[in-house]
Structures are given as structure tokens and as C-alpha cells.
Amino acid sequence: MLAVLLVAVCAPRAAAPRPAPPRLAVIVMVDQMRADYVDHFKGDWSAGLKRLLSKGAWFRRATYPYLTTVTCAGHATVSSGAFPNSHGVFQNAWWDRAAHRVMTCTEDPDAQDVGYNTSVRGGDSGYRLLIPSFADEMRSQPTSSRFR
């Protein structure tokens, strides 16, 4: 009896099949939308938002473990998985020592926005982010390992 039990305990188990990784990851952040608005308005949603709610992940009790939750710092935290002291975006605007002026968190003098007035130099980008974002990390993975 003991030998049978040992064989059963020591026998290799078949590995559980790994679920296929998603082919697309979408992060939706809505500024100034309280969490209870999702419950309040979900009856009005159809198609995309309804599908994201029913088939996606929704973190009902997500919090920021730091004081300020301004737009730029919060978006950079969620998109990178790091805190402001690591990713470098801590406010919506701050004094840029090199430029000798206040610059917004997305202002990039080397970027050109796509829009009606393309003669304007400078645009917006995530170049101030000091670490890779989730999307950057996904792009750096070989295609074969991303979509197994």
C-alpha cells in the first residue's frame, strides 16, 4: 500500500496546457471617471466597451500608492508598471532645466504631431519616460515567443 502511494505521489504530472497569450493588449484609462460610473453606465454601452467589460480584466480596487495622481504620472505608472521615482514622470508639467522653461510631460521638441497645422515644430511623445513601457517590452519580444 505504501509503495503504491509513493508511486502516485512521485509520478510526474502532466503539465496543464498553457492558455494562448493574447494577440492584443488594450489599456483603457479615462481621466476623472470614477469607478462607480462603470456600474452606473454599463447598461448604455454596446459593442467595444461592453465587450471590454465582459471579457476583459477590470481592476476594481486598483490604487496608486503615492500621493499625487495627476494624469501624466498615473498614465506613466500604469503603462510602465513602475512608480514615478523610477519612470521619471511625476507631474503634468515641470521646469525643464535644459530648456529653461516649464514643459508639459508629453512635450517633445523633436516630435511632430499629426494634425491640420503640420508647420508647427514640436509635438507630443513619451520620450520623457525613463524606462520602457509595457508596449515597448511587448515589441522587444520575438514574435515567436509573443504568440505561442
Helical fraction equals 25-40%
- The count of DSSP E runs of length 2 or more, i.e. the number of strands, is 4
Strand content: 5-15%
Strand order of the largest sheet: 1-2
Radius of gyration, Cα only, in angstroms?
Answer: 23 Å
End-to-end Cα distance: 42 Å
Outline the structure in words:
This protein has 148 residues and is mostly helical. It has a domain at 63-140. The protein is built from seven helices and four strands.
Summarize the structure.
This protein is mainly α and 148 residues long.
Task: Detail the topology: elements first, then pairings.
Layout: H1 2-10, H2 36-41, H3 47-55, H4 71-80, H5 84-87, E1 93-96, E2 101-104, E3 107-108, E4 123-124, H6 134-140, H7 143-146
Antiparallel strand pairs: 1-2, 3-4
Main features:
two-stranded antiparallel sheet; 4 strands; 8% strand; mainly alpha
